[in-house]
Specification:
The protein is mostly helical and 569 residues long. It folds into 2 domains: 22-228, MFS general substrate transporter like domains (Growth Hormone, Chain: A, Up-down Bundle), CATH 1.20.1250; 328-561, Growth Hormone, Chain: A (Up-down Bundle). The chain has 16 helices and 4 strands. It has helices at residues 26-45, 47-53, 59-88, 90-113, 133-162, 170-205, 207-227, 241-254, 264-267, 317-343, 349-355, 373-399, 407-438, 460-484, 490-519, 537-561, and strands at 360-361, 365-366, 441-444, 450-452. A two-stranded antiparallel ribbon has the order 1-2. Strands 3-4 form a two-stranded antiparallel ribbon. The radius of gyration is 26 Å and the shape is globular.
Length: 569
């Protein structure tokens, strides 16, 4: 049986040594992740088509419903992460939520396979029957289970995999670094298959079969996960991690009138550190106002076991430094929100530009506009093994460093590449529009607007650059949060990247609204016109590139100021 250790901040003897199986546990964890993504991602990205074609929901209402569903699944990981770190633990959370995703997929499959659970089919020109309240209730039930599943799987799967490596050995540290890369490699590979094969089956063969296949894959994900139960390292929850944070601020406010101690090694409450999992944090000179929470006064009482009688008046240096860790991470985290402003364009205006470009490959095949994101995923899939297996080993030999390119450096490279991708996008858009307006066209869109004869493959370079950008920035973000967050809050750390994506989408929507309303005023040329040939989409890309330059400067300032966890003052 595997050993389990509860992480503690003091007062109790250390638990027995943990046996780490490392890569031996990875087939079960990565297998679970791969099948889970194959089962849910393709279906989620094709839900808009399902709602409009099978449930006969109006496109505007369907889009609103999908936005609500996507937004909820982006914020659910914060709740799941809190429950995992505070009460359930990552293993139990993943177990429950994997089953919840399976139930959600099963119910969604029933809505397609059972005739009574969806409206009758209708042909072009017919008046389509609306879904009944009962049919919508079953559909929403499947969404609810999928949200619960995403809320636990997204923040916990990657930290749980990293938990299987010993962070105190060189092999374990190297295993954690490689795990993050290979985890994302399988993630993007599964996304590519979902975005092509599974969506094709759902849209052209049968919705029943197209949804049954992901359900079976989700069942296999659960099987893989539970097969590895006996060898997993399971870190037990340690109560609400946010209580300690509130206690530090409460104690600091109550003692705001005290003077700062001259010698932090003598005047601050710093009991012996006994946990083998939680990193011992030394005092740092940033955010000194929080140090007052650890100042020992004559009114503070200490129990025989070394813990304070009133934890809302006196906190340990360890607790204070953990709060400082979170405050230092916030500026770095905000750069991720601005970074995603460029990334999310590949699912919006890149698709719209592709619709007004020549998407033919040969005389009989036309690339679906929504499938262009595959090129970004392809770049990630190709780059990650090259970087992890070829580039990093050579850089280690040249630099003599275990981590030749630091996490913050990789994040900065990703931000820089995203800005380059926007510049390339602007240049290509000018070429596309000029050909449509002054050269040849190959037809007209259903909604109006000439289709440029420029091959849509000209947009592949910008997507490939964005893909490599994500391989640098997104993987490094997740690894950075995992390593820099206090160990008992790692599931919350895993949820931060998804919050970045959610806020990045909201920021993009806000920017689109502002530019559309500003440039679309009477007498002006709307940059984001319904017909892109009459607009100035390239200027929109230049705005995002300019914001990216600002974000790069802001990130460099944050990176220079940042102090890594565990470093002394």
């Amino acid at each position: 049986m595997e050993k389990m250790e509860k992480m503690e901040n003091g007062g109790a003897p250390p638990s027995p040594a943990i046996k780490y199986y490392g890569w031996k546990a990875m087939p079960y964890i990565i297998g679970n992740e791969t099948f889970e993504k194959l089962g849910t991602l393709g279906t989620s990205s094709n839900l808009l088509v399902y709602l409009t074609s099978v449930f006969h929901i109006k496109s505007v209402d369907a889009a609103t419903l999908i936005n609500a569903f996507s937004g909820t699944t982006s914020f659910a990981p914060i709740i799941g992460a809190f429950l995992s770190d505070a009460y359930l633990g990552r293993y139990t959370t993943l177990a429950y939520c994997s089953v919840a995703s399976l139930l959600g997929m099963f119910i969604l499959t029933l809505t397609a396979g059972v005739s009574g659970l969806h409206p009758r089919d209708c042909k072009v020109g017919d008046t389509c029957q609306k879904a009944s309240p009962g049919q919508m209730a079953v559909l929403f039930a499947s969404f609810a289970f999928l949200v619960v599943g995403a809320g636990g799987i997204r923040p916990c799967s990657m930290p749980f995999g990293a938990d299987q490596f010993n962070p105190n050995t060189e092999d374990g540290k190297r295993g954690i670094n490689s795990f993050f890369n290979w985890y994302y490699f399988t993630f993007t590979g599964a996304m590519m298959i979902s975005a092509t094969v599974i969506i094709y089956i759902q849209s052209t063969v049968s919705w029943s079969i197209g949804l049954a296949i992901p359900t079976i894959l989700m069942f296999l994900a659960c099987v893989f996960y539970f097969m590895g139960t006996k060898i997993y390292v399971k870190v037990l929850p340690d109560g609400s991690p946010f209580t300690s944070i509130v206690q530090v601020f409460s104690a600091a406010i109550k003692k705001k009138g005290l003077k700062q101690v001259k010698d932090p090694n003598q005047g601050l409450f710093d009991p012996p550190h006994v946990s083998s999992l939680v990193t011992k944090l030394h005092h740092t000179d940033q955010f000194r106002f929080l140090d007052k929470a650890a100042v020992v006064t004559s009114s503070d009482e200490i129990k025989p076991n070394g813990s304070p009688v009133d934890q809302w008046k006196l906190c340990s240096v360890q607790q204070v430094e953990e709060v400082k860790c979170l405050l230092r991470i916030i500026p770095i985290w905000t750069t991720g929100i601005i970074y995603y402003l460029a990334v999310v364009q590949q699912s919006t205006y890149v698709i719209l530009a592709a619709l007004q470009s020549d998407r033919h490959l040969g005389p009989h095949f036309q690339i679906p506009a929504a499938s262009f994101t595959v090129f970004s995923m392809l770049a990630q899939t190709l780059w990650i093994p090259f970087y992890d297996r070829l580039l990093v080993p050579r850089l280690r030999k040249l630099t003599g460093k275990e981590e030749p390119i630091s996490l913050l450096q990789r994040m900065g490279i990703g931000i820089f590449l995203s800005t380059v991708a926007m510049v390339v996008s602007a240049v290509i858009e000018v070429k596309r529009r000029n050909i449509a307006n002054h050269g040849s066209t190959i037809g007209t869109m259903l909604g109006g607007g000439a289709i440029s004869s420029m091959s849509s493959l000209w947009m592949v370079p910008q997507l490939m650059i964005l893909g490599v950008s994500e391989a640098f920035n997104l993987i490094s973000q997740i690894e950075f949060y995992y390593k820099e967050f206090p160990e008992h809050m790692r599931s919350v750390a895993g949820a931060l990247a998804f919050l970045n994506l959610a806020f990045g989408n909201y920021l993009s929507g806000f920017l689109v609204t502002i530019i559309h309303n500003t440039t679309g005023a009477e007498g002006r040329k709307n940059w984001l016109s319904q017909d892109l040939n009459k607009g100035k989409l390239d200027l929109f890309y230049w705005v995002i590139a300019g914001i990216g330059v600002f974000n790069m400067i802001y990130f460099i300032a944050c990176a220079k100021w940042y102090r890594f966890k565990g470093t002394r003052q």
